[in-house]
């Protein structure tokens, strides 16, 4: 069965573990994957897409070896397969210019500075995944209580 996937990207395992722990309320309804680099995330996205899964959300750190978070999220934005994928930049070291690039080129939906508030991150992820489900034209009722009710009501109007 096709699943909606959340991909979390950070080169620091302790940060990835914290993000995964925070997103655990979503695990029953969404597939949550972790990657330690931008390159690995793009490879995983190719594999998941080929298997028929949907990439609903990418949460990425900015400062990583190789491809940084803004570059990764820009690549996601520029790939027609993932045009509706939602994106969050999660970082403690982005400069003002990095943030501008993330908004203008990667078209991120949200930006969180480390350390983040777990409830706020989960709420944001829930809202973005709800928007993704509506943007894709999926039957929102399949995801039941995990969706953001305010977003559901707004989209149904």
Automatic annotation (TrEMBL):
* Taxonomy, superkingdom: Bacteria
From the UniProt record, list the coiled-coil ranges.
none
Keyword line: Phosphoprotein
Residues covered by the Response regulatory domain: 5-129
What InterPro entries does this protein's entry cite? Bact_response_regulator, CheY-like_superfamily, Sig_transdc_resp-reg_receiver
Q: Which residues carry this modification: 4-aspartylphosphate?
A: 61
Q: Where are the transmembrane segments?
A: none
- What is the protein's given name? Response regulatory domain-containing protein
Q: What is the lineage of its organism?
A: Bacteria, Pseudomonadati, Pseudomonadota, Gammaproteobacteria, Vibrionales
